[in-house]
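Data card: per-record layout.
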Amino acid sequence: MIKKAKKINISLLILSLIFTGLDAYTFQEIPFSWIGYAMSAILLLITGLDKFKKFLYSKFLITYWIAYAILITLIQYFNYSDDIPDLKYSSFDRYILLRLLVIIFFLFTLSNLYNISNHFSFEILAKIIIYSSLFISFMSLISYFSYVFEYSDFYRNRIGTNSNSVQKVLDACTILRNYGTFREPSFLAVWLSPTVPFYFFKFRESPKLQYLVLFPILSIVLSRSLTGIFGFILAMFVTFIFFAFKNSRNYYLLFPIILILIFSTFGNSLTYKFPALDAAQCPPNSADKCDCTIYDDEEDLAKNSVNLNQSIFNRAKIVVSGGVANFENISRINSYSSEKNLTLLGDGFGIANVKFTNDFNKNNKIIRNNEVQNIYPGLIVSMNNLYANIYFSTGIFGLILFFVSLIQICVSILKQSISRSPILFASFLNILIMYFFQGEELSLFFAYIIGMGLSQKENN
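The structure for this 460-residue chain is written out next.
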């Protein structure tokens, strides 16, 4: 009976991770990623509500922050009196409910990993992460090469991030990027890169697993995501330096960085550029879709280069040299915060996003069909920065509490054995870095890392 329960737990853990990686697909209009989140509730019931209660009373600051975030969101929701946006794909009430569910499922996953780690070895949990990572990597490479070798890609049926239709991968005169099972290439890189450190755990039974790291690394490089690639490189390098000062020379942390440099330098044979449209199709399409020598600027030229090295490193140089203005999410946040007073308690999750969108729409208009319209009509404008979202949603009080909880988690991770600590720390740091430029909601995998870090401390 115990073995059966453990198999069920392992299956649910793998499925929940994989489903969150199927971002571009829906079932009965329900995104697969949401099904992955919901599995945390099933797993919670299997592990037992008594253990969930034990976790809540464990005095981890992250649980206090979650309780505060839920409370302030509910208070602000029932007191909301501003303009309610006309959303295309959701109602205002449903949108706020979904934001609350993300936080609740995040809490459930924290509890699940905290309790499950008392029954499973770190090696088993690392394998669960690796198998999920390999599945998403293989799927992404199959999808990528479908455009190179002209076979059918997987059928995508989820509305894109900033459009009224399914996200378009094939686009004339643009370079092919690895979208994989996601709506954006950067989503793929952000999902995969924190899984890479786990390939280098010293497995007793499957030592050759580390060689399979080639697949997620290649998938990340082909995505050409600056956030995913440089967030990963920085996290691995900082982790190596930090543990070197602790007299622990984990040279394996540098190996994936070397792989990224090799793939980006010698992987040009894997790149593919979509051909131009026929002249008869321009107009109505813009000229740059019929003439592939036309580019908006140097960044656009680098972005669509068949040279991987130029596309990644030259583009990064252009973006960084341009300052904050080249980071669209940062400039939007700065513009919004300059018009607001210091936020003490926050507007609540979801509500803060609505207010951010209303401000963006007020200051950014375009002429479409001879009418002045919003740039993204009926859509919520993303902050693409977790820390800004936490600040506007929970205020300066919530942001400080969140950062203090991160310090507590970091200390717990650093107290692990030398075989586990660098892996958890590198993955944890990688996620924290990427949250500055991509993603504004707490991810399921982030909860995995935190839960493993906190619970392993008790095991020791």
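Known properties of this structure: The chain has a mean pLDDT of 86. The radius of gyration is 22 Å.

See the next section for split statistics.
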